[in-house]
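User: I'm preparing a small set of examples for a lab meeting where we compare how different chains pack in three dimensions. I only have the primary sequence for this one, and I'd like the structure in token form so I can line it up with the others. Please keep the answer compact; I'll paste it straight into my notes.
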Amino acid sequence: MNIFENKYLRKIGILIGLITLLSLIMSFNPNPAFAQQYRIVIIPFKINAEKNMTFLKDGVLDMLSSRLSSGENVEIVGREETEKVVKAVEGILNEGKAREIGAKLEADYVLFGSLTIFGESVSIDSKMVDVTGDRKTLAFFSQSKGIGEVIPEINNFAEEINEKVFGRVMLPKELPAKQAPQVQPDDIYAHPETLAQSFDDDEVAGKRSDLNPAFIITRPQKSSREFWKSRNFRELINGIALGDVDRDGKVETIIITPNSVNIYRFENDRLLEIKKIDEDKYKIFIGVDVADINGNGYPEIFVTSLNPQRNVINSIVLEYDGKNYTKIVDNSAWYYRAVELPGRRSVLFGQRQKTGGPDSFSSEIFEMVWSNNEYVPDRKVLPSNLTNLMGFALGDVMNDGGETVVAYDKSDYIKIINQSGRVLWTGSIHYGGSTHYFEMPSFEPNSDNRQYYPMRLSITDIDLDGKYEVIAVKNYELTGRLLKQLRKFKEAQIESLSWNGLGLVTNWKTAIISGYMRDFAIGDFDNDGEDEIIAAVISKEGSIVGTRPVSSVISYDLKKKTSESKTVN
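Assistant: Understood. Below is the structure token output for the 569-residue chain.
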């Protein structure tokens, strides 16, 4: 090989190296002139708030437009052009409608969402939709405290879109380390895992009830931890009830999950599983009660249930026969609720789901009796269109010797109703708050029509002073109940209320806990001769793919014991 061939080959090698280097540089720093061009529609976010937050809607839109259009390969469709098309497209805004809007505007992506403000809590729920449907929707959800956190969260979402959709690598920013909040000795604002206690400002000034130091009245005292907590269950507890179902002289705890009925007993400071008595993947169990209605000495277990589509009632009734728990009623079309009435022992009430009715609050409520091997309606207790049985109680709530109904309306306000159906009083504060729902026929295409059930109420003389009280759960909803089809609860407590001649007023309330309460029961849970209030607490719903639910049972003693607390790991 001569010197000229060497020089020629060397030049070819250098040229190939330069081309390779240039291609590598281009791959990391693409020239906008050759990058794919994107046309983006940003639909102004829906603001759910008690106050006028138009300025926030405009601010979110401006910020997203600024962050996403910072690259030369992104064009943001003008607001006027967008709003004109949005108004022309009828129906609820969802991914399908977003794609329709995007197609009309000849866009590649559509960004839409909502911002919900409740007190100091702020949540952002948004989606970036590929108009063609070829790419997976990019969803973003965040919760924060205070309006001031909205801008950083929107900025985070914009960065996520830039990285995952447009391939722009964003440099991480150094953030100052957050200082850990100082824990106060009397802080009882708690997760049920630890049951450490906390009160709001008005609660700090409250004294504790003699029933239990965790129940707040009016004056400050030293906090206490009169709780018991079970181990965590890695499944949802959908309902809880107490009763001596096997007639062995000990009270059992009946826990239902979405697809199973389970018998437990409190022994040696923990819940022991006695029997898993029914599993059915074709039913969703939503309520449980225990009462001996057929009079044979063995209390029946009434389980209200739905079909998997949540649009048909198919309840069951179980009973111990001396050896096994057998199903004495199956696929019943009745909701069931048992109530203890003085002088009448346990009374069973029933309600049908009205076929073709406008909602799950449409049908009459009856007292039920056992006849010819089935439970049949006897006396009508309440006319139609007033409440659902899952949030119904009957008793001497006014302490005048009569029987009056206490129930929830559709908005979870407590009502007092006489048995002719006349509403005597309606509260102005939301109580209850359940995520159980019935799926009604939808009048809008591609939309749900969930009718949420109310929670259990109880009328009882809990402190044995001769006067009856209403016991109710209060679950605090993240969005302030602004979103009709979506419920997300963050905190909960139990309250005792009494009639004062004008309305129901609070006697005491438990400390707030993190999570929400699904159900509660009152009875001798631990077989010590004294009653307790027990509650099923949901710490994690497990609704996100890849996550599992977390539930537990907590118990409040109704008479102060010598020990400071009881906790089971």
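A couple of notes for your slides: The domain at 201-557 is CATH 2.120.10.10 (Neuraminidase). The chain has two domains: 38-164, 201-557.

User: Perfect, thanks.
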